[in-house]
Amino acid sequence: MDRKKASCTTLLVGKKASIDGSTMIARNEDSGSGSEPQKFVVITPERQGNEFYAVLSDCRISLPAKSLRYTSTPEADESQGVWAASGINEENIAMTATETITTNSRVLAIDPYVEDGIGEADFVSIVLPYIYSAKEGVLRLGELLETYGTYEANGIAFSDAEEIWYMETIGGHHWAAVRIPDNAYVVAPNRLNIDHFDFASEMTLCSQDLEQLIEDYQLNPDFEGINLRHIFGSSSEKDTRYNNPRAWYIQKHFSGTAAEPIDQELPFVCYPKQKLSVEDVKWALSSHFQNTPFDPYGTGSETQKTQFRSIALNRNQQVHILQIRNHVPAAIAGIHWLAFGPNTFNGVVPFYAAITKTPLGYCDTTKTYDPSNSYWLGRTLALIGDSDYDRYSDLANRFEMETMAACRRIQQETDRKASADKQPTRLLEEANAEMAELYLKNATTLLGKMVESGSNKMALRFSLTD
C-alpha cells in the first residue's frame, strides 16, 4: 500500500511565553494532495483495546491493559490507518503527531527505515492513552521506536501544564528530544529542526547509543559542538523554498528577526518580543507571507508569489491548538482548539477535552462532500474565498473574530460554572455543542455572504433587466 505524505507546520509556545501561562502545542495537518476528511472524536478505554494494528505496515503492537480517555482527530476514512493526529488525554497530557521531517543518506545507511514498523498513522493511538506527563510521552514513543522501528522521519510534540517536549525520529530506530524552555517558542516546518544538543543536559533525551553512533560513524561535520540538524538532517535547495521560509516568516513577526527566507541556520528555539495568545498562534498558522512579495494573494511578480511554500495552504486539512491552562481547575484545563479546512478562511473553536463525546458537525464528517459538517463547509469557504481574496478576506476575518469572541464568552461562563461543579462533564459537553452549533451557523452565514457578493461580479451577467 502506498503511504501518503503529510506536510505540516508545528508551533510550540512555553508557559512563560504565553499570555495566560498556558502551554500550547499546535500544528497544521496538511495532506500530500487533495482532501482527506477529518473528524473530532473521543476514544474511551472500552474502544482502545489491548492490541493495535498498524494498517500501513502490517505491524501489530501490544498495548498496556490500562488506558486513559483522550480526544482525537482521525481520518473519516480509516482504510489507511487511524491517523489520530492530535489529542488531550484525561490527565491533561497533549500530543500532536506528526511533523514530517527530513534526513540524509549517512544516517539511513547506518540505521535504515523499517518497512514493517510504526509511523505517523499510529503514534497518537499507541502513546497518548498511556502517559501521565509530556516527558513520559517521549520515553514511551522512544521505547516503541527502538522496539518496532519506523518507516519514515517525523517530529512529535508533547505537553502538560508545566512542560513541552519536542521529539524527532532519526533513521529507523533512533530519536532525540528537547524540552522547550518555558519562555520560548518553536516553529518546526518539514525538516529536521533540532539544532544545538547537549547530551549531558536535563533538557534533552535521546536513544541510549545516539552519542556513540555519532562518534563511531564520524557523522559530526562541525569543528565544535553538536548540531543534530547538521548531523542527521538536510540543508537542501528544497529547504530554502519549502521549509525555511515558513520558520522565517513567523520568527520575523514574533521575534523581530532580520534573517532571510532562505537562511539554512534559522534557530530552533526562539524568544518572542511579547507574550503569545491563541489568536497569535492561529494567525501564524493561517499566514501566507502577507505584506511581502511572496504572498500568493499579493502584488509581487508571478515568480515571487510562487517562490516559497506558504503556511496556509489548499492542503490544510485541520489546525489544532492543544492548550493546557494553569489558571483554572484541572478538570477544565485541557482545551482542544480545532478548525477544519484551509486556514485562511476558517476559525478555531475552544472545545473542552474532559468529555465523553464530541459535537455533531465535528464527529460525523463524511468521506464524501457534505457541507453540513464543519470539514466540508470549511473547504467550501476556502474554495470560494481563494477565487477572489481581496473581495472575501474582510468577510472571513470578521467571521473569525466574531466567532472566536462568542466562543470565548461561552467558555468564560462555562469555566465559572464548571469550577464549582465536581462532575462537570455534562456541562462541558453542552458548552462544546453550543460552540459547534454557533460555528456552523456563522460559517454558513459567511458562505451566504460570499455567494451573494460573488454573484454580483459573475461574468455571466448583463446590465439590462426586464
Q: Based on helices, strands and strand pairing, what is the structural class?
A: alpha+beta
- Poorly predicted tracts of residues: none
The major β-sheet equals: 7 strands, antiparallel
Percent in strands: 15-25%
The radius of gyration is: 22 Å
The fourth-level CATH homologous superfamily is Penicillin V Acylase, Chain A
What this model shows, in words?
With 466 residues, the protein is α+β, with helices and mostly antiparallel strands. The chain has a single domain (7-366), classed as Penicillin V Acylase, Chain A (4-Layer Sandwich). 32% of the residues lie in helices and 18% in strands. Strands 14-12-1-2-15-16-17 form a 7-stranded antiparallel beta sheet. Strand 7 and strand 8 form a beta hairpin. It is globular, with a radius of gyration of 22 Å. The model has no long low-confidence stretch (mean pLDDT 96). GO terms for molecular function: cysteine-type exopeptidase activity; dipeptidase activity.
Quick rundown:
Belongs to the peptidase C69 family. With 466 residues, the chain is α+β, with helices and mostly antiparallel strands.
What features would you highlight for this structure?
single chain, 466 residues, alpha+beta, Penicillin V Acylase, Chain A, seven-stranded antiparallel beta sheet, six-stranded antiparallel beta sheet, 32% helix, 18% strand, globular
Write the layout of secondary structure elements.
Elements: E1 9-13, E2 23-30, E3 41-43, H1 45-48, E4 51-54, E5 59-62, E6 70-72, E7 86-88, E8 94-100, H2 105-110, H3 120-127, H4 134-148, E9 154-159, E10 164-170, E11 174-179, E12 185-188, E13 204-206, H5 210-216, H6 228-232, H7 237-255, E14 269-270, H8 278-285, H9 302-305, E15 316-324, E16 334-340, E17 349-352, H10 374-387, H11 389-418, H12 425-455
Antiparallel strand pairs: 1-2, 1-12, 2-15, 3-6, 4-5, 7-8, 8-9, 9-10, 10-11, 11-13, 12-14, 15-16, 16-17
Helix pairs in contact: 10-11, 10-12, 11-12
